[in-house]
């Protein structure tokens, strides 16, 4: 054969034959290869740790010179020549391994590399099969990297070969060889770089064939997929599939057809729609949903963002309005919600609130938690304010009963509205949604003005009478409850508690009830429970000393009597009170707590005191009050970590076994840049001034005049004062916030008692559940579009599961009874198929807990704390909310503290997850508890 008819010998082919020789027991030597020497390069290589020389030989003399060079040399020499064995002669051939020339066959070398005894004909009949074989040899992994996987049954098939290349060079998971596996692979960040490296280091044919094999995994969609992979648009595979799914689900109209045509043009294809496109789109949706359910990866969100871009480019964003994955779907839901909130802000009617609730439920159903999370807090706060605006406004009145009602209402309701206003004020970037939030905030602030003026009039009335003997008690009482005077909190609440168990009292200077709501929610999610005071059902309230200034109110709090003064007086009076009451303790201020040794979280004197035997340690923390001057207290989320030293002190108290009392000297109002300043020469703070000497008309409608025993000037004497009421009014220069006035946010102070979870420190007090009002925790109106309860019986499930869900009645509110002794199971009455609620109609919850399968689940679950009443309530409430509940909603429904929610969810799963089916699950990102009502009905065999 002439040299022109021979191909050059690639280094990879020579190395493959050297490996074959080594496998036969040769340790080193000279390999003779039949090939075109003019197409073969002279090379020096290291292969598997040994030197390899590749030498072209155009004549017998050249071959002899290469043999002489190889004598005594380490490693291997491969001589490539077009001379025949007769031309070379027996002497030269005798020096060669096998004593003859080898005619290298690339496929034979590939077969050997895979440990196969045979080859699939599909390989050797592939166009450009010789180039493909050479490329496979060139791509052979080293022995250290594991080489190629051995071919099953001894035959090297195309599937085995391409799977091996895809796995070793492209990072493809060979264990998941299907459409989903291909899509997941395409989302890896380094896929494009891997493909480029494969093309750069081997012939393009190997990359093309491998990608074609991968595209074939998608069946009928293979042409589209192969086009994307071949054009280097691997990252567009999932976004294009999601786009196709959007178009497939859109109505068949001119807009949809035009968008599909534009997509085809952008892809460079005649048609993107084919028998496999729908399946491809469904696989992409399932993949992204799985990823988001598992917590959501950057790759999934990148794919969703790219899909939005493609839809926008082809003019199809509006067609994705119903999507639960794409941003266009979220934007459409938010637009509906904005319109509903705007209507409700203008006219808070039940129908308008229902529209808000429906729009919010649809928004929450969107699966992209990251996109929703960017706007969730302000938008959810707006929804909460809509619910609050639907609540009835109390009547204006004065007297003890009115004051107690307003004070407790502030703690349990108004302060939560203040927190929602702060959260909503953070705002969003979307103009329509921003305008809607602004309308809701404006309406809520206007209502707060009305409430604060009612409160201030009742405050002035109580303050005027507080000096009389009938009112010289610990506070103000009525049939509704009691409100403590702040100067009685230490002697009448804290010190008695400290006698029962060592205690830590934390005075968070300037902490409003709204800030306390956030702080205590955070603390109770971190292993603490809130305890009732005097057996009351809710958090206790105290009335600050007037004006609500630190030198007056804090000094009175720490002195146990009406007083004014600085830290020196506070220390002196605190020590005197503890001595008088027969207990030991210490008081620390800011400088004491801030002085930390390097590496310490708690100052040494403070830590020693907490660890010690003294009954009561009191510490003043100034973070919130300081924020009124230097930062934005309204824009701060007041968690435990945001209050300097609080988290460390709580940890120290837990370790020392101390109960914790958290309270404040006064609250504060926020500067929202919409208020007004009225300067007076007799101002005593930004929100207080001395009483006018003239007629009462000098007090404006946004102020209140107060006088009496509990109005104290800076010398500690009884006084009279005029206090700002509306939060937008200030007397002094602009700050971030203010105190000194007579709004409920400044006057009403929360008194909170905490103990570690599962570590009872006090024998009497019961645990308090979530203190959030119902409108904060969840929907206060039942959607007309979502069934809130369903009529059920338990029997065999019919073939069409959709027939199970027919709304028949509204959810019935049932009180959360923590001490309920209802049994965990109910007997199944054969005559009565399920329990009936008042009104004669059973619900899903009553049907489940009355079923025989539930009895079996209870037996299997063993000892659990939840009873049948709680289970029924959970099922019905979750069904009413579309199968989704927030943590606070679940805690309220079960009547337990949110700190115990983890164990409660585990018990719900033990009782309801029949045979491991995920009937109850918790979203790992949002913490939302999900109940699959369809699966619940199937597993417990209940039907309509």
From TrEMBL:
What InterPro entries does this protein map onto?
A: Alkaline_phosphatase_core_sf, BREX_PglZ, PglZ_2nd, PglZ_C, PglZ_N
Q: Where is the Alkaline phosphatase-like protein PglZ N-terminal domain?
A: 22-105
Which residue ranges have biased composition labelled Polar residues? 685-696
Superkingdom, natural source: Bacteria
State a single Pfam family of this protein: PglZ_2nd
Chain residue ranges for the region called Disordered: 676-699, 812-831
- All copies of the Alkaline phosphatase-like protein PglZ second domain together span 178-325
Name all Alkaline phosphatase-like protein PglZ C-terminal domain ranges. 841-941
Query: Any idea what this protein is called?
Result: Uncharacterized protein
- Native organism taxonomy: Bacteria, Bacillati, Actinomycetota, Actinomycetes, Micrococcales
């Amino acid at each position: 054969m002439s040299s022109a008819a021979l191909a050059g010998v690639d280094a990879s082919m020579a190395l493959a034959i050297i490996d074959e020789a080594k496998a036969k027991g040769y340790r080193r030597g000279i390999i003779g290869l039949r090939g075109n020497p003019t197409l073969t390069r002279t090379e020096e290589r290291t292969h598997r740790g040994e030197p390899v020389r590749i030498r072209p030989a155009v004549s017998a003399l050249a071959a002899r010179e290469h043999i002489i060079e190889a004598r005594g040399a380490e490693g291997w020499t491969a001589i490539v020549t077009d001379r025949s064995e007769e031309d070379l002669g027996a002497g030269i051939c005798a020096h060669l391994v096998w004593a003859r020339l080898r005619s290298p066959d690339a496929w034979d070398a590939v077969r050997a590399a895979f440990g196969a005894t045979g080859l699939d004909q599909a390989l050797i009949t592939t166009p450009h099969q010789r180039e493909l074989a050479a490329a496979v040899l060139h791509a052979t992994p080293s022995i250290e990297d594991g080489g190629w996987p051995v071919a099953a049954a001894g035959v090297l098939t195309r599937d085995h070969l391409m799977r091996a290349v895809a796995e070793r060079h492209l990072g493809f998971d060979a264990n998941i060889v299907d459409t989903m596996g291909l899509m997941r692979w395409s989302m890896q960040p380094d896929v494009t770089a891997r493909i480029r490296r494969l093309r750069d280091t081997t012939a393009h044919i190997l990359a093309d064939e491998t990608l074609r094999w991968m595209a074939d995994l998608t069946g009928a969609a293979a042409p589209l997929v192969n086009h994307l992979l071949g054009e280097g648009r691997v990252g567009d595979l999932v976004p294009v599939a999601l786009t196709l799914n959007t178009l497939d689900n859109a109505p068949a109209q001119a807009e949809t057809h035009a968008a599909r045509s534009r997509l085809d043009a952008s892809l460079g294809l005649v048609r993107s729609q084919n028998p496999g496109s729908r399946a491809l789109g469904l696989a992409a949706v399932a993949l992204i949903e799985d990823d988001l359910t598992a917590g959501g990866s950057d790759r999934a969100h990148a794919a969703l963002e790219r899909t939005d871009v493609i839809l926008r480019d082809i003019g199809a964003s509006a067609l994705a309005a119903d999507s639960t994955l794409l941003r266009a779907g979220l934007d459409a839901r938010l637009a509906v919600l904005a319109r509903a909130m705007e209507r409700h802000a203008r006219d808070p009617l039940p129908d308008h609130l229902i529209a808000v609730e429906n729009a919010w439920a649809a928004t929450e159903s969107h699966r992209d938690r990251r996109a929703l999370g960017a706007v969730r807090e302000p938008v959810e706060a707006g929804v909460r304010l809509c619910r609050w605006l639907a609540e009835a406004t109390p009547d204006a009145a004065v007297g003890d009963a009115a004051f107690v009602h307003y004070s407790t209402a502030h703690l349990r309701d108004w302060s939560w509205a203040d927190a929602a206003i702060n959260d909503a004020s953070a705002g969003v970037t979307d103009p329509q949604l921003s305008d809607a939030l602004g309308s809701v905030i404006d309406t809520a602030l206007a209502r707060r003005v009305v409430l604060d003026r009612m409160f201030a009039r009742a405050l002035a009335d109580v303050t005027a009478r507080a000096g009389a003997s009938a009112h010289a008690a610990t506070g103000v009482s009525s049939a509704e409850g009691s409100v403590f005077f702040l100067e009685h909190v230490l002697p009448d609440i804290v010190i008695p508690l400290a006698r029962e168990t060592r205690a830590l009292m934390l005075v968070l200077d300037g902490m409003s009830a709204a800030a306390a709501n956030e702080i205590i929610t955070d603390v109770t999610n971190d292993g603490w429970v809130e305890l009732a005071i005097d057996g009351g059902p809710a958090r206790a309230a105290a009335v600050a000393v007037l004006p609500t200034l630190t030198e007056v109110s804090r000094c009175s709090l720490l002195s146990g009597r009406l007083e004014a003064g600085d830290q020196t007086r506070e220390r002196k009076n605190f020590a005197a009170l503890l001595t008088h009451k027969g207990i030991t303790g210490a008081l620390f201020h800011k400088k004491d707590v801030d002085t930390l040794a390097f590496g310490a979280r708690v100052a040494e004197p403070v830590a020693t005191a907490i660890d010690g035997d003294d009954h009561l340690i009191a510490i003043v923390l100034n973070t919130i009050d300081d924020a009124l001057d230097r930062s934005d207290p309204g824009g701060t989320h007041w968690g435990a970590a945001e209050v300097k030293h609080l988290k460390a002190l709580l940890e120290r108290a837990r370790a020392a076994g101390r109960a914790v009392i958290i309270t404040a000297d006064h609250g504060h109002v926020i500067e929202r840049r919409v208020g007004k300043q009225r300067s007076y020469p007799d101002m005593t703070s930004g929100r207080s001034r001395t009483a006018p000497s003239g007629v009462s008309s000098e007090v404006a409608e946004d102020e209140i005049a107060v006088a009496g025993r509990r109005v104290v000037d800076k010398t500690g004497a009884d006084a009279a004062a005029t206090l700002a009421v509306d939060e937008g009014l200030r007397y002094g220069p602009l700050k971030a916030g203010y105190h000194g006035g007579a709004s409920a946010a400044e006057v009403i102070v929360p008194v909170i008692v905490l103990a570690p979870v599962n570590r009872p420190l006090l024998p009497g007090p019961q645990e308090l559940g979530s203190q959030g009002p119902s409108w904060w925790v969840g929907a206060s109106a039942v959607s007309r579009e979502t069934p809130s309860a369903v009529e059920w019986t338990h029997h065999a499930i019919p073939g069409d599961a959709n027939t199970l869900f027919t709304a028949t009645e509204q959810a019935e509110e049932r009180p959360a009874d923590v001490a309920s002794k209802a049994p965990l199971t109910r007997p199944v009455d054969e005559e009565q198929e399920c329990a009936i609620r008042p009104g004669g109609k059973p619900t899903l919850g009553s049907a489940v807990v009355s079923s025989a399968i539930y009895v079996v689940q209870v037996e299997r679950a063993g000892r659990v704390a939840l009873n049948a009443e709680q289970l029924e309530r959970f099922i019905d409430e979750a069904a009413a909310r579309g199968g989704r509940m927030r943590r606070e909603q679940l805690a309220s429904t079960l009547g337990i503290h949110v700190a115990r929610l983890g164990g409660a969810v585990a018990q719900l799963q033990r009782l309801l997850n029949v045979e491991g089916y995920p009937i109850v699950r918790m979203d790992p990102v949002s913490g939302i508890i999900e109940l699959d009502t369809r699966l619940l009905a199937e597993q417990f065999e209940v039907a309509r």
